[in-house]
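Quick one:
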Amino acid sequence: MNKVKAVLMNVLQILKGWFTDKKVLIWLGILALPVIIAFVTVVAVYNHFAPELPSLSQLEQINPKLVTKINDMNGEIAHEYFVERREWTPFDSIPEDAIHAVMATEDRAFYDHWGMNVWAIPSAILESATSGKKLRGASTLTQQLTKLLFLTPERTISRKIKEMMTAIRIEQTYTKKEILEFYMNEVYLSGGNYGFQAAGKFYFGRPLDSLTIPEYAVLAGMLQRPEAYRPDRHPKAALERRNTVLYAMRDAGYINNDDYHKYIETPITLAKKEVNNDAGLYFYEEIRKYMEKKYGENSLYADGVTINSTIDPAIQAYADSVARVQVEKVRRRVKYRTTRRLLLTKKYDMPEDSVVAHFDSIYADFKKNYLAADTAADLTKRRYPDSIRYHHAEVAAILIENETGAIRAMVGGSDWNASRWNRAVQSLRQPGSSFKPIVYSTAMDNGASPCDSVNDQPVSIPDPDDKNPNKVWRPANFEHDFEGMMTLRRALYRSKNLPAILTGMKYGLNNVVNYARKFGIVRAPLMAVPSLALGSVGATLMEMTSAYTVFPNGGNRIEPYMIESIVDRNGEVIERNSKVEHEVLRPASAYLMVDILKDVNIRGTAARVYANGFTHPSGGKTGTTNDYTDCWYIGFTKQYTMGVWVGSDNPGSLGAGHTGTEDALPVWIAVMKELHKDLPRKPFPVPSGVVSKGVCNHTGKAAGEFCSEKTVCLYTAGYAPTETCDGNHFEVKTKSADDATLFSNKGAVSSPATSAGGAKKARKMF
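Output:
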């Protein structure tokens, strides 16, 4: 102990001597000068670049842009929205072999440095200064992450200094594991892919934890030059680079020599890319607009939410295909008609088939040389009126699941790339006769029966908006004929105009407006005028299809929706949809309408449904507007309701024969047959409140024991006839032959029948 003390005292004496010797102090100052200069330089550099570095708050809140995924009804990814395709993978879920492949080539000393490799960077700077070449790499993983997150990619000394300074800050803010997690999820690996998870699925079709070491080596090899070493475009270069990474992994001790030789002989096998058939793009666009409007553009393209949608991918693809085929048939028919009406074969001295084959270019020339000069202000004086010009047909369709309201398919047009206007939800068009079920629903919900009579005869209705009492409206039927007395059932399945108008007037046009609103027709104004009964309103296909869900759902309209739930990146549900119902009709009234609309599909304007072999219980209604402008068919089974529209974007006549039956119905039949091929045949159950009663064909009273001719009719409770016929039929006029034929169907609740009140009762109605 005394010896140690003596040594210390000697050292102190020596130091005291040095600090009293001026020469020694001078030499110490000279030796310390570089250190002082270096310190001052570091402080100056830090102060110069510090304002340009990311703040501590930025470092602590790194939020990478993630992919927004849209799942289909089966939970499979159906569509994506992203600026950077990235699937964030936590460090604990990143395979160790993937990390080893990266570290072997990019930063073997990662766990030993504090953000920068003090030996590699000076040599890189010296090399750049002496050779005049761009500054080479030699960055640590942390420095590379710095460049990815905060800095520009140019190679300059100033950027390198900022990179080192920021890397040190990152190392002070995050753990090594967190830095690796950021790196493995942030790096760009070409093809719009960011991070190893997204790239693994893109190139190999499997998640990261199921890839092999050679496949990890392919991805790690792309870090140096993502586009040049992209395996699907440059397979030879990618293979050579992969083997370089495998060599580095062996050299670093991550794989043994035997595995190395085995791996370099392994070919690169990429996943087959699924062909994008563009199915459902109108559907996904509606979701995109909803998300952007409610949550903002940044959330849509960066927050990595998962949207669980209602789309049925198989039936959506089928509906898209069927709609395209059908609209092409319609267009071809319109082109032949236009060719004949405009005498294009004569004008261009070509056979008709050749004109149609080259119609687009020929019609463009015709517009330039003929239509451009046909601009008379008085449309009646134009040589080529709008009714004979070409109108390009488009198509739209909506499929709704009745039980839930989930939209299973949406066709917004024939070609998303040509037009993004969604005709299923954006176009307001006149529904024509497809509106009539709302009129008859108003009647049924206010005591009418399908057996009630109405007179199909010419009427003159004063114009309520004109002061001239002599100005009247004389509506006609589509087929320009009149059948006289008929039942409401027959009037609807035959789509007669006069009976629909008279029924609307009898039960109140204001009442019809109110019911239409309850049915969900809300986008456009509704005027309580007689033409309302013929669908002279504006409605979208979505509104009309949703309205028809009232019938199979026992009087309740189901609110249609496209999103089941939205889940954030952490698995938290931020939005969830559930079934929303609106009471529109009494269940009994809805059933009476179902029973009538079934006749439309069996022997009415949509009789092709049954004739084409679709035998599932179904109902629906066609619609064709003035001058064959809009063609509709909306129909339902117990499980689904589907609406189809065909027409021109700029409303114009498609020409005679283009009806809901001809143009829209074929799409419905094809899709519903495909959809229901494995589904059970579900009948429409009869609810309480429906009364079935035998009615005398002569008097309209409840059939008595002396009534040999009677029909079973449907009523809502409280509205069936209570007076029993006594058999005195002599004072009642004989019914029409058609009615007699209809009345011969007896005994079934759903059997067609005519007037429950007879001709005498019908005359009192109007």
